[in-house]
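U., I forgot to send this yesterday:
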Amino acid sequence: MGLCVLFAWSAPVSAQAAEGENESFELAQRLFDNRDYANAAQEFRRFIAGYPASARLPSALYQLGEAHFLGEQYREAVKAYDDFIVRYPGRLEAAPVMRRKAEALERLSEYAMAGAAFQEAHDRFPAGKHAARNLLAAGMNFRKAEDSDAAGKAFGALAANFPQSDLAAEANYNWGLVLLDAGRPEEALERFRTITAPGTDSKWTPDALLETGKIALRMKNAKEAEAVFGRLRRAYPRSSAAGASYLAQAAWFEGRGNWSRAAEIYGLARGSLPQSEGRQQAVLGLANAWRELGRTAEALALFTEFINVYTDSPHLDRAWLGLGRAHAGLKQYREAQNAFRRLRELYPKSEAGIEAYAGMGDVWRAAGAPRRALRAYQSYAGETDDPAVGASARLRIARTYEQDLDWHDLALETYRELADTAPASVAGEAQFGIARILDRTGQANPAIREYRTYLQRYHTRAAEAEKRIRYLREFGRESTGVGPAELAALLSSFPAIAADPQAQLVLGRFLRGQRQYEEAAEILTAALSADLPPPLAAEATWLLGESALTIARKAGLEGRPEAAASWRKKGLAALRAVEAGHSESEYADNAALLRIETETRPAADADSVRARRQLAAYGEFKEAYPGSDLLDRALLAMADAMRTLGRFESAWVDTALTTYRGIRNAYPGSAAAERAFYGIGLCQALRKDHVPAEETLRDFLFEFPGSDLESHARYQLGRILLERGFPRSAADDLTELLAGHAPAELARSARDLLAESYFRAGDYGRAIVVDAELLLMGPDGAVLGRLARSYEANGQAAEAIETCKTLLDAFPNAAYADSFAYTRARLLAKLERNSEAVTVFKAFPKQYPESPLIAEAGKTLATLLFETEDYRGALAALAQVPAGARDASVAGREVVSLYRLKRVQEAKKASVGFKKTYPASRDWLARFQIEEGRYYLRAGNFKKARQIFEDVVRKHPGGEPAAEAAWYHVRTLKREGNKDEYREALAAYVKTRSDTRNGPAAALELADILYDSGDYERASRAYRNVLAAGPSPEETPNVLSRLMKVHRRLKLLDTAIAYANRLVQEFPGHPLASDIRIDIGTMLHDNKQYRLAIARLTPLLKDAEGNDWSTIQFWLARSHFGMGEYDSAIREYLNLLYRFQGAPQWAASAHDGLATCYEAQGKYKEAIRELKAIQRREGAASDFGLQAGKRIEMLKALLNSSQKTPQRAQ
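Result:
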């Protein structure tokens, strides 16, 4: 904002005044030289106020700023430097003053403002002594302010404009760090390579190598990191970066659980690093790695050595923590507790000190003192401020309740609380804990419900939860006090039963019916060891075989593979004994079928060999037992095997279908008929008879609503509907499936199919949600690929880019990697993250040498470089495009690039070749002419340029080349200086070509000309036309600002205020907005809307500084005066007088305003007093003083004549 003051300075002074002036300045300078900066500043301020016309005023202003700066009054220093810059922008001292102002802002930690000030210092003096340093400082401050774009531009400008400077390497290094902060590692690598390339060497090379290696680790390329770090350690063995490389590499392996490799590298670091904090970290890292590797005694010795040697280490708390854990690992519980207690005494508030409580609790649990462990865990939870750590402590408490104290009620209460409120990792463990307690306390059905809840919400332990559900379904039994096993044990102890095999058979049969299979097997084995009649022996052997196989399944679910194999062997032997020794018994077919089912049990992915074996085995059963009541099960198994073979040989599908239908007809109402019904639908789907398949499966769901195949049927329906092109219907069935209790693997497949259904239906938002859930179960290339495509289709290009990067990091060698690398680069270009896109496109041929997308990537790279005006790079990229992929656009861009690189003769020659190859490409030929014309325009040959542009317009009327040529024709006339002809041509262009690419720029240029010439009415129309055409977001604020100024000039204050309001509402953060907000207040004042002016101006005072603050305060006072609120106006003027900021002239403005208020109140003496204050402050001979003198005489006359009506000064 400009200053609103009522006077101008005057210069003449007397000889006596000159002597006083010198004495005043020299006193201030002596105080400054004596480092009495506070008093020096005071004297410089007096000099500036007392001698405003002095030739030494610039020096005084500069020294005032220096006094404040060296006195650490940085905010006051900024004000003084600002005053100097406003008054003397053209003086040589302006350069160091601007830099000093920036340094003061930096000391105030106003990093964004400091960055802008350093940038401004460079832009004002780009060839100055400190130009490069100003850019470096700008970048460093912008980085601290987290403005990565501004920081990158500053560092980039330094590297480009001062390539030979010693600061160029530092700029490239810091630019790389900025790019890393912004998540753009590929571009960061480009910056670091400028410092690390062979033949380059600077003090920043080691640090750049370190960051290059870290990037390789981030990209999971351990081999590349090893090579980079090796080079760093060989070339710069004593650098801090070399030491840090050991720690970074070791920490990476540590984070991946590769403790042996981490220990190896920590060991190298320990031997290579000097006695420093880095070496301390290496020793601690090595000790921790040894502890994790089971080398606990060695770890203990190293922790002890660390504590004794590094007595002042900042990592001593972590050493005490490690010492305690090492003692605990060796079961030296007393020593462990002593270490943890010592840690608590020394570092009670550190992270390790708080973590000591967890160590104490773990030790007490291991030592068999769970109540003391509880107290330690409760202290752990109470001390930490981190919600995640607190939740982890509460989980320890719940496990202690459950596993050590058997306080299941408290454990359940704590687990339920954590399941509802804790972070996902802890909440999942808590939910599993709920199910586990119910499981262990014999509450099978509630446990199954809680395991299912876990499966719906979490995935980490899904397989274990699924296994427990299967176990509880088959073997679970609600606890009811004395059970069958206890009762059987009692009965079998009776001598009469122990000696009676038939009684033992009855008891064994009872136990088997009660799911007490181990006890049943024991009793049945005892019964068979005696002489049982053949019919009873057949039953006992059958029951023993069935029980043994059931025990084998149970052992498998319990994770006891050896026991499972042993019981399976016993069970099969018993079944074979039934078949061989009791072939005529009623149990022979049962035994045969169970044996076949066990021996040929299908794997998760059944293959044709297994299916043929099943078909043969069940066929033999059918032949051997044609009258068996189990024949339906055998036929069903045969049909299933045929259906499996149908995946490989289509003829089997028809056979399976016939068999399934035969089962339905022959065994209606049976379990086999139900499953056969489902099998018919599957066969129809295999035959691609989708409509009948859908009808069959829907009939199945209707007829068997509670079937355990329901979720499978809905999954198949989803697949069928998706294949038929009905993705929304597929999604409905799959959603219903997932709302139930589907097995974990089926649920995952269903989610995958659901995401695909949403994707194909164009419901990308829901597809994104489902795929994000799937990725919680683990990385999956296909899911990541679909997620990236969904993000792109949903308009979330940034998220698509990040997902592509995740996919490429996780699956760098996948067959589809090149496609997603290309997509990522294309989207980067779409978001105008051009330098990132260029980096990816350049690396594409090396990364994917066999990709069919190489030619397209090369063309896209060339186009991108061309459009970003990197014509040298574009030429190089265009030259790499294979001959088979070259077309008119490739050759055309080559010609244009040559013109824009001023290689005119080459361009002309290339254009001749182009015309021969592509004679029909008239637009490109016209563009070549335009480029030639532009060359002559730049060279100042305006006549030749005009001729070419006019020729293009004549030969290509109505086309884009004509519009482009017409535009450059206008530019040529402007350069020639023919104002009338130029304005005529510009107006004609706006009238006839407003809808072309340069139309908005032409309209805005014409509006600016009208504004600058004072033709405000036509300028208003022109700006309104520009606004109506929809200028870019970058141009709109300037257009609105000009419209405001035009309408203000035309005294159309209402519309001026409206445009100003629109600017601040739509662009609140724009640099123009702060001044416009003040303008709104002043225009409201001028429009006599004083109350509204006060309402709009008052909130601005809070954040305003310098001249802006004083301007707002001044107009607040004037607004109160305008309403006749003279006392309020006086209060505001006094506020301005005693608190003004910025230029000292504001004090004169405040005195003048006070005089005006007193005059309006008829208080002439008070008015005269204020005017005399102006004379004292500014000098009676100054313009201010002379004007004040005239008003004093007028007021004295009014006072003497006792006139009561005051005259308001104009």
